[in-house]
Write a structure and sequence with these properties.
Blueprint (H helix, E strand, L loop, with lengths): L1 H28 L7 E8 L10 E4 L2 E11 L6 E8 L9 E6 L6 E6 L12 E2 L1 E3 L4 H13 L2 H9 L1
Amino acid sequence: MQGNLVETLIGAVVLAVAAFFLAFAYSTAGVGGGVSGYELKARFNRADGLVTGGAVRLSGIKIGTITSQALDAKTYDAVVTFTVDGRYKLPEDSAAKIASESLLGGNYLSIEPGGSDVMLKPGEAIKFTQGSVSLLDLIGQAIFSATTGPGNGDKAKAQ
């Protein structure tokens, strides 16, 4: 009987520690709640690597969260909806681009503020956007340009 009580207490301690780590991970990851603020939209020709819940950054500082992504059935553009913290008002001529966190990491939405005195209102869209760049496409272009560079093309024409 004494052995069952000890095993039960050890199991309860293990469950309590696991619950603590789960709560810590949940609060640290910023999954719950997102950023409260106002909603904006941006249209991109490519939105590779963006995920719902991903970061919206201005000068490298997180100011918002991506809330949804959709495909426009008429233009086939990716429409990204995101929230921006209410403390930050963005000029109407701001630009949004999809930037890479690292060479192997994911992407985030980078905002570059404009110089206008008129600020974007909730629900409006950022007009100036730049979609994601495919790393494989860049590598392919570099390899192709190296094999058909100025020296290689001229030799073929001379013969």
